[in-house]
Amino acid sequence: TEITEKLEEAIMIWSKQIRQVLVESEQVRREADDVGPSAELEHWKTRMSSFNSLLDEIKSSRVKKIISILQAARSKTLKQWKELDGKITIAANEAKDNVKYLYTLDKFFGPLAKASPITMMEHVPSLMNTVCMIYCTSPYYNTSECMTSLLLKITNQMINTCKTYLCEG
What we know:
Layout: H1 2-26, H2 38-58, H3 61-72, H4 77-103, H5 106-114, H6 117-137, H7 144-168
Helix pairs in contact: 1-4, 2-4, 5-6, 5-7, 6-7
Protein name: DYH5 protein
GO molecular function: dynein intermediate chain binding; dynein light intermediate chain binding
InterPro entries: DHC (IPR026983), Dynein_heavy_tail (IPR013594)
């Protein structure tokens, strides 16, 4: 029972840390007003990396052994652990999926940032078709919040490109 108590303490500490990571991941991002769409991709890549690392740790043999011992001892802490494990898995899947979809836009980020306003406009129909495809097919990124954030960043980039063009001209 002493070993079980120590292991339960470890699980409680890990659970608290995992909850903190989940809470922080759900907080509203603070970004500059003129940030472009590549920042959206970077955000989700960072988030994917964080959650994948956390999943790797949770799936490690050390943690699996501790969970097995606590299962054998019929520990009550396992219910919330399994719940957190599920939430981390969902968050990791969401980040991975969003990165996959946002990468389809990556080919537009260069032309949006470096082209003249006229050449930039040639890419807009394809860009919007790709955004529409993401909205229609992504299981996670098709929310109003995600689309608004993405379209705002695309617009920011277009405005920055036009400002740069005007200042150079």
